[in-house]
Design goal:
Blueprint lengths: L2 E5 L4 H12 L3 E6 L18 E5 L14 E4 L6 H6 L1 H22 L2 E7 L26 H21 L3 E6 L2 E2 L10 H11 L3 E4 L5 E3 L1 E2 H12 L6 E4 L4 E3 H12 L5 E4 L14 H7 L7 H14 L2 H7 L2
Parallel strand pairs: 1-2, 1-4, 2-3, 4-5, 5-6, 6-11, 7-10, 8-13
Antiparallel strand pairs: 9-12
The structure holds nicotinamide-adenine-dinucleotide (NAD) and uridine-5'-diphosphate.
The site of nicotinamide-adenine-dinucleotide has 28 residues, from helix 1, helix 3 and strand 5.
């Protein structure tokens, strides 16, 4: 049985990846320090013989006994609210955490895939963003703690690949949404859904003309899965190219939820990217991958998921 270590396992993406690799017949070690994650996302895996959980901070030395075939490094705060609250820990998990996991991969001769982000393109001047674009990031701006940590993650991963011949993969993930997100993690999909559920007005930051392109979780997981088993070591974008303005998106959520909330406008956070859309030519050509779930289908699934939670479960999702 192939053995895989997944860091950030109790988080949104990490928990869905645990599910996928369990389904594919892997032995999965989930690792997390629970700083933004929630054990509830993976407790259903605890009774399984091919799953174990390590409560561990990956910025400290990481040890796993026995053989290890693959590592997915997904530990990191991912929402602007989270990483602005814990800026130093964000820098550490992208830098020291990545270094520790690359070291482990080298020791075990394991293939490692690291979770990078569309944020490496910053507030992009090239649109849509292809992998050749170097980005427009302020290293000293508030979002720099996340963006630069991920840029360092990419650099050190390529260095281990080129210098040590390590088998590495880098996925640049564009805004992904799905079940298990925390309703108040500040990201726009759970924020708008939570507001609709509570009967509150939807908060659009700035004038809402900034754009994003939202990818449904199952499509994202499929892209990551294919990348891990490809032989492509350069960074690759995985996301849904269907772009929308945030104002249109708020209107879409109001139509979907059938509620009659208004849109209210709040100040735009500093360095909030004005446009974002992945160029997925490489993913199409190299991985034979493209997203299958439309935004309206995906949003409906996620809204139904949040609606199906009990009041206690909903309250927990708002911690
Ligand atoms: P999340 O906050 O739900 O999950 C992150 C998990 O990492 C949490 O469970 C958290 O407790 C854990 N973690 C953080 N620091 C840790 C540490 N030092 N040691 C051990 N565990 C630690 O976020 P997510 O949306 O699931 O994001 C997962 C990964 O994907 C992140 O690396 C993020 O940068 C990347 N990513 C996500 C998106 C997205 O749209 N969801 C977009 C781009 C990149
Ligand atoms: N946003 C918003 N209202 C909210 C939360 C976010 O208008 O309540 C905006 C935010 O300013 C950004 C976009 O939605 O322009 C996406 O934000 P998110 O935090 O989800 O992702 P990121 O900015 O990291 O792409």
């Amino acid at each position: 049985m192939k053995k895989i270590l997944i860091t950030g396992a109790a988080g949104f993406l990490g928990s869905h990846l645990c599910d996928r690799f369990i389904t594919e017949g892997f032995y999965v070690i989930g690792m997390d320090n629970l700083i933004t994650g929630d054990l509830d996302n993976i407790t259903h895996l605890f009774p399984l013989e091919n799953f174990e959980f390590h409560h561990h901070d990956v910025t400290k030395f990481v040890h796993v006994s026995g053989k290890l075939d693959y590592i997915l490094h997904f530990a990191s705060p991912a929402s602007p609210i989270d990483y602005l609250k814990i800026p130093i820990k964000t820098l550490k998990v992208g830098s020291l955490g990545t270094l520790n996991l690359l070291g482990l991969a080298k020791e075990k001769n394991a293939r490692i895939l690291v979770a990078s982000t569309s944020e490496v393109y910053g507030d992009p001047l090239v649109h849509p963003q292809n992998e050749e674009y170097y980005g427009n990031v302020s290293p000293v701006g508030p979002r720099g703690v996340y963006d630069e940590a991920k840029r360092f993650m990419e650099s050190i991963t390529m260095a281990y690949h080129r210098h040590h011949g390590l088998e590495t993969r880098i996925v640049r993930i564009f805004n992904t949404y799905g079940s298990r997100m925390r309703l108040n993690d500040g990201r726009v999909v759970p924020a708008f859904m939570g507001q609709a559920l509570r009967g509150e007005d939807l908060t659009v930051f700035g004038d809402g003309s900034q754009t994003r392109s939202f990818c449904y979780i199952d499509d994202q997981v499929e892209g990551i899965y294919r990348l891990l088993f490809s032989d492509y070591a350069e960074p690759i974008n995985i996301g849904n190219p269907h772009e929308t303005t945030i104002k249109e998106f708020a209107e879409e959520i109001i139509a979907l939820t059938g509620t009659n909330q208004k849109i209210i406008y709040k100040p735009l956070p500093k360095d909030d990217p004005s446009q974002r859309q992945p160029d997925i030519t490489k993913a199409r050509e190299i991985l034979g991958w493209e997203p299958k779930v439309s935004r309206s289908e995906g949003l409906k699934i996620v809204y139904d998921y949040f609606k199906s939670l009990s009041p206690e479960e909903l309250q927990k999702k708002e911690h």
